[in-house]
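Technical annex, item 7. During the second reporting period the consortium partners agreed on a shared format for inverse folding records so that results from different sites could be compared directly. Each record opens with the tokenized structure and is followed by the designed sequence. A conforming record, contributed by the partner at site C, is shown below for reference.
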């Protein structure tokens, strides 16, 4: 049973996903399924990004390769995927975090307009 709904905003996440090998896509879907179905998702899968207002990263690892998918919560039950990337350095690239924050602002602005505020 789902405890959360996961959606992708526009095509940012999908653009990233289709560029990944099938095995990586499968692993990403497993992590998304965990987010949807587990009340408490293990911290090795998810991490809040310090210094951001509600941005999280989902961690995907396959062999020695690492990927990150950014997301945020819209209410308690809705998870919005933003973008992803393959991690090649110890530190998460600042431009990837900035892109995720930009997508989050874009989502919130669009939602405000749709709500008529």
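Designed sequence (site C submission):
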């Amino acid at each position: 049973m789902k405890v959360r709904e996961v959606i992708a905003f526009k095509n940012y996440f999908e653009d990233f996903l289709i560029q990944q090998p099938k095995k990586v896509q499968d692993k990403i879907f497993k992590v998304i399924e965990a987010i949807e179905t587990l009340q408490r998702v293990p911290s090795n899968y998810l991490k809040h990004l310090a210094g951001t207002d509600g941005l999280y990263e989902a961690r995907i690892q396959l062999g020695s390769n690492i990927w990150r998918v950014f997301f945020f919560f819209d209410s308690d039950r809705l998870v919005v995927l933003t973008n992803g990337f393959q991690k090649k350095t110890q530190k998460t690239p600042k431009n990837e975090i900035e892109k995720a924050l930009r997508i989050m602002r874009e989502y919130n602005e669009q939602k405000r307009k749709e709500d008529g505020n």
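The mean pLDDT is 94. The longest helix spans residues 94-115. All partners now use this format for quarterly exchanges.
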